[in-house]
Amino acid sequence: MKMRAMVIVLVMGVAALAFYAWSRNTARQPAPPQAGGGETGGSGVVSGADAPAMPPGMPGGSEVVIQSGGDPGVAWVVPKRWVSEPGSAMRLATYGVPRAAGDSEDARCAVYYFGPGQGGGTDANLQRWTDEFADAGAPERTTRSSGGLEISRLRLRGTYLAHAGMGGDGQGTKPDHELLGAIVTGANGSVFFKLAGPARTVDAAAREFDAMLASLKKK
Questions:
Q1: How far apart are CA 147 and CA 214, in angstroms?
Q2: What b-and-e string marks burial along 7-37, b requiring 16 or more CB atoms within 10 Å of the CB?
Q3: Rounded Cα distance, 155 and 116, in Å
Q4: What is the pLDDT of residues 83-135, one digit of tens each?
Q5: What pLDDT is recorded for position 6?
Q6: Per-residue pLDDT for 167 more than 70?
Q7: How far from each other are the two terminal CA atoms of the chain, in whole angstroms?
Q8: Between 177 and 4, the higher pLDDT residue
Q9: Of 119, 113, 135, 134, nearest to 69 (Cα)?
Q10: Residue from 132, 135, 216, 214 nearest 179 by CA
């Protein structure tokens, strides 16, 4: 009898130790992580760089939505006919401009902002754009102001020496192309607008481009 009682007591002791170890392990398990990432407030809305950009394919006609990069401190109205395209690490915004009759491709307007004091001087950038064309002749260059902002505008027509990289829309030589460019000097640094594409399409969009520049204002 004594031996049987000792076995029963030993079995109960082992069972008690096993239950104690199981309960401690369960208490230490972390709570499941919440869905989503990035910094959120009490409402769970993602903010800052993680905030969603304007979906591609949205028409213009409203003030610009920042797709990437910092805030340049200026706002403008996008032409209604233009279509917002996906942004990139280099571009603040990109707009597709529907092709004119007889042209084989759309034009594209890219907007760049690199931050205060970044992106180079106005003259150097206008010359860089000029160097992207062959047989363009004398560039048409004007200066104006809008909303307290200084705007330097450039117009070129000739053979576009397309290249990969910043501002490049593929590679190759494209005859009978045109570029409308503008550099806006704002309080937070320069903002670069570059509309390039087949000449007829850019010609048809010239008034829209100038109207966009006229809509520029400080925030």
A1: 8
A2: eeeeeeeeeeeeeeeeeeeeeeeeeeeeeee
A3: 26
A4: 999 867 778 899 999 999 999 999 999 999 998 888 889 999 999 999 999 98
A5: 58
A6: no
A7: 92
A8: 177
A9: 113
A10: 132
Q: In terms of C-beta density within 10 A (0-12 exposed, 13-18 middle, 19 or more buried), how is residue 210 classed? A: middle
pLDDT in tens, 36-75: 333 323 222 222 233 333 444 445 554 444 444 578 999 9
Say if CB 82 and CB 59 are below 8 A apart: yes
Q: What is the 3-state secondary structure (H, E, C) of the chain?
A: CHHHHHHHHHHHHHHHHHHHHHHHHHHCCCCCCCCCCCCECCCCCECHHHCCCCCCCCECCCECCCCCCCCCCEECECCCCCEECCCCCCCCEEEEECCCCCCCCCEEEEEEECCCCCCCCHHHHHHHHHCCEECCCCCEEEEEEECCEEEEEEEEEEEEEECCCCCCCCCEEEEEEEEEEEEEEECCEEEEEEEEEEHHHHHHHHHHHHHHHHCCEEC
**Residue 78 · residue 53 · CB < 8 Å:** no
Amino acid occupying residue 179: L
Domains present along the chain, CATH in parentheses: 56-218 (3.40.1000.10)
